[in-house]
Amino acid sequence: MDSYNQTQRTEFIFLAFSRLQNNQVQLFLVFLAAYLATLMGNFMIITLVLLDSHLQTPMYFFLSQLSCLDICLSSVVVPKILVNFLRQHHTISYNQCLAQAFFLVGFAGCEPTLLAVMAYDRYAAICQPLHYAHLMRSKLCIQLSVAIWLWGFLDSAIHVALASRLEFCGNNNVPHIFCDVPPLLKMACSDTWVNELTNHITSIFVGLGPFLFIILSYFCILASILQIHSNTGRRKAFSTCASHIAVVLVSLGNAFVNYNQPSAGYSLEVDTLISTSFCIVTPMLNPLIYSLRNKEVKGALRKLLSCWKIA
């Protein structure tokens, strides 16, 4: 029986594609357009931060990290989805499935901590302006960046290591459009209580902890802004935080719904919609939110475009 189970789980089949057979060409074009928009928008942010000296500050350093994270998160799942739209057999090998889940959970785990660090940057800039250069010095920013990526992939390694121990009893049908830890738990015939307990515990440190830190940071920021007597000064302080708040609400809201499902789970259609929004729509929206609401980013973009025209 063990050898039979091992044979059966060498390849998994994505069930969600069977519900989308009548619209696969249209969906391929939609996913391709969203992926290209994600790449273009986020590469634009990274390029602007690298080329424009006015954007080489801690705030935009972490913004470029967010763009890099969004590119990676989307690239883990979308290319495989696009390939499966063009194939009759919507499959993935067992090892590829675990690898996809590992990188997906890793990149997803980095984002809340990165957003918390970005909130701290705004707190330091608004509440501690005289000490900002010391609080957000270059060496510390690099150390924080490395810690963010290590933290996310430590969380991922724990989840995927536990998932690799699950037995599937010949069930190789993934109730999803890509590999993630929650769908693997639904497939398993062995006891998953350790996996579920680990998921709830790590979500406190990886998701809830950074979220509470962000809320605390913005309470302090709000208190400082209310002490500013000038309406212009208040508007300027609010404008520096508006884009970050929007990204926090979109990113962490989607992540919470995706990784804290009810015990009964969602339907296949709802689950696919939520995960698609988390891995594809959110990475596409983040650069739009920052570029549309940020005067410095728009100014740097106009400067870059004018240089290209001259060239």
Automatic annotation (TrEMBL):
<feature type="domain" description="G-protein coupled receptors family 1 profile">
    <location>
        <begin position="41"/>
        <end position="290"/>
    </location>
</feature>
<feature type="transmembrane region" description="Helical">
    <location>
        <begin position="140"/>
        <end position="162"/>
    </location>
</feature>
<keyword id="KW-1003">Cell membrane</keyword>
<dbReference type="InterPro" id="IPR050516">
    <property type="entry name" value="Olfactory_GPCR"/>
</dbReference>
<feature type="transmembrane region" description="Helical">
    <location>
        <begin position="237"/>
        <end position="257"/>
    </location>
</feature>
<dbReference type="Pfam" id="PF13853">
    <property type="entry name" value="7tm_4"/>
</dbReference>
<protein>
    <submittedName>
        <fullName>Olfactory receptor 5V1-like</fullName>
    </submittedName>
</protein>
<keyword id="KW-0297">G-protein coupled receptor</keyword>
<dbReference type="InterPro" id="IPR000725">
    <property type="entry name" value="Olfact_rcpt"/>
</dbReference>
<dbReference type="InterPro" id="IPR000276">
    <property type="entry name" value="GPCR_Rhodpsn"/>
</dbReference>
<feature type="transmembrane region" description="Helical">
    <location>
        <begin position="272"/>
        <end position="292"/>
    </location>
</feature>
<keyword id="KW-0675">Receptor</keyword>
<keyword id="KW-0812">Transmembrane</keyword>
<keyword id="KW-0807">Transducer</keyword>
<dbReference type="GO" id="GO:0005886">
    <property type="term" value="C:plasma membrane"/>
</dbReference>
<dbReference type="GO" id="GO:0004930">
    <property type="term" value="F:G protein-coupled receptor activity"/>
</dbReference>
<keyword id="KW-0552">Olfaction</keyword>
<keyword id="KW-1133">Transmembrane helix</keyword>
<dbReference type="InterPro" id="IPR017452">
    <property type="entry name" value="GPCR_Rhodpsn_7TM"/>
</dbReference>
<dbReference type="GO" id="GO:0004984">
    <property type="term" value="F:olfactory receptor activity"/>
</dbReference>
<feature type="transmembrane region" description="Helical">
    <location>
        <begin position="27"/>
        <end position="51"/>
    </location>
</feature>
<feature type="transmembrane region" description="Helical">
    <location>
        <begin position="98"/>
        <end position="120"/>
    </location>
</feature>
<feature type="transmembrane region" description="Helical">
    <location>
        <begin position="201"/>
        <end position="225"/>
    </location>
</feature>
<keyword id="KW-0472">Membrane</keyword>
<keyword id="KW-0716">Sensory transduction</keyword>
